[in-house]
Structure formats: structure tokens, C-alpha cells
Amino acid sequence: MGRTAGREGGGASGDRAPATRPVRAAGCVLWRRAPAGEGIELALVHRPKWDDWSHPKGKVKPREDARAGALREVLEETGMTCAPGPELPTVRYRVGARPKEVRYWAAEATGGGFVPNKEVDRLLWVSPDVAREVLTQDRDKDLVAALLATLPERAGDTGEGPGGNG
């Protein structure tokens, strides 16, 4: 983790990279302190094109740094500004015949407001436990645990396990 994204192009529509080169994407596991004062909430986005729930993410533009692309995508998809934290595990999977690589960062929401758009029609703020239930892909659910590991002072009050408050 923490490696520098090379200038590989890739990711943007119209990309002419060979089909074996991964699509480059980036996003954040966006979180905030719960308004009730206990624990945290995660932002999940609903994409009507795929009818799925995921963390905000998108393709990295040619010559764009992956972290900058992640912050841009969060703003575009959620309307939220954020403070990036540690890099989380990179997720790799296939989209059709092409590999895709998504780099993620933990990011605390700092402001802004959601306005539905063509790509994202709904935004939910939910506890980590609810996020695991709502997220469509298991790979996105795994990122919840990765985020919580970066926030050890909050891990005890996320509502995990029996008797939790989430």
C-alpha cells in the first residue's frame, strides 16, 4: 500500500490501453462521527445504472494521481469534501474481460451536501454493521473492517457484535 500510481493512463473512457492493463479507479470509505455522538457512520452510494450499493469510487483520469482521483470521485458522487487518511487495501476484480484495480483511502467527511445525479441517486449514512448488510459486493464489505482497523479508538463503539449500539 502507499505505492505511487504510475503514469499508465488507463481508466478514462476512450482509453486506448491494451485490454490486459487494469482499469485504474480510486475511491474512499467515507466516514463521519455519528450525529448521536457514539460511533461512526459510513457513506454508501446507490448507482442506478447497476442498482447496487457501494463506496464512492470511479475511474482515475489519465495522468491523475490515484488519491486525487479518489477525492474527486467522492466530491462528484456524494457532494462531500473530505480529509484523506490512510490508504486501505487495493481491490482487484474483473469487469467483463478486463481487470480492474481500485485503490481506496479512509476519508473523514468535512463538509458538503448530497444532490442526486445521473450516476448516484441516493446516499446513505449508516453504522458499520448496517453498511456490511447493505453493500452489494463482498469486496466492499471487506473494506469496512479495513477502515475500522485504521480507527482503533472508534472500533469499540461501532455496534459490532452482541450488545453493540449500532
Largest sheet: 7 strands, mixed
**Number of DSSP helices?**
4
Average pLDDT over all residues: 86
Question: What is the ordering of alpha helices and beta strands?
Answer: EEEEHEEEHHH
Which structural category fits the helices and strands?
alpha+beta
Shape: globular
- Tally the beta strands: 7
Spans of at least 5 consecutive residues whose pLDDT stays below 50 are 1-14, 155-166
Give the distance, in angstroms, between the N- and C-terminal Cα atoms. Answer: 30 Å
| Percent helix range | 10-25%
Rg (C-alpha, Å): 16 Å
Strand content: 35-45%
Provide structural commentary.
There is one protein chain. The chain contains four helices and seven strands; from the N terminus they run E-E-E-E-H-E-E-E-H-H-H. The protein is of the alpha+beta class. Strands 1, 2, 3, 4, 5, 6 and 7 form a seven-stranded mixed beta sheet that branches. A hairpin with a 4-residue loop joins strand 2 and strand 3. Helix 2 (128-134) packs antiparallel against helix 3 (138-150). The longest helix is centred in the middle third of the chain and has 13 residues, at 66-78.
